[in-house]
Amino acid sequence: MNRILIVEDEDRIASFVAKGLKAEGFTPTVVGDGIAGLDYALTGEFDLMVLDIGLPGMDGFRILERVTAERPALPVIVLTARDSVTDTVAALEGGAADYMSKPFKFGELLARVRLRLRAPGEPVPDDELSVGDVRVDLRRRRAYIGDREVELSARELTLAEVLIRNRGLVLSREQLLSQVWGYDFDPGSNVVDVYVGYLRKKLGADLVTTVRGLGYRVD
Prior knowledge:
4-stranded antiparallel sheet; Arc Repressor Mutant, subunit A; phosphoprotein; alpha/beta; 20% strand; single chain; Response regulator transcription factor; 2 domains; Rossmann fold
């Protein structure tokens, strides 16, 4: 049973999320203070954290920074009223696995939680994935070419993980949006193409193959 830490100072929202997660079989713990939330997050007892940004005691971005440095294997879903592009980018580049703006639908949050934890009964992922000279360390959330570490954003790393884990299979843009971003973009969005371009530039032009009209594949 997955344990989820909810760091949220609005009692109504915290209670709503906790009750919903408990009904779905998770074990939630609610903390309403930033300092206490960081202490809980660093214990290693939780499988995922839902984190607000505007917290008393300590700002959520500071918590995210510490957790990313000291508990990189802990997925963090940022859930906040701050919805500017600047805040979204800061959270994702700071190590958050996902970002949701308030108000939100619980069903969407639940889908993202399950995406980050993987469905019950699904095999536990290996600690490391590799293809050719490219290696992704899932526990430390790092990518390498040979022995050289390559700096990837949280989103780029997740995209690389999904593609390599499904190597040999063609993944459509819609599948990648669902698995990496956790929600649907405008069908006309080119965000997948842009991020595939980032991976090719950082990990090698031949890493990802474009299958015209279908999607992308790692061989």
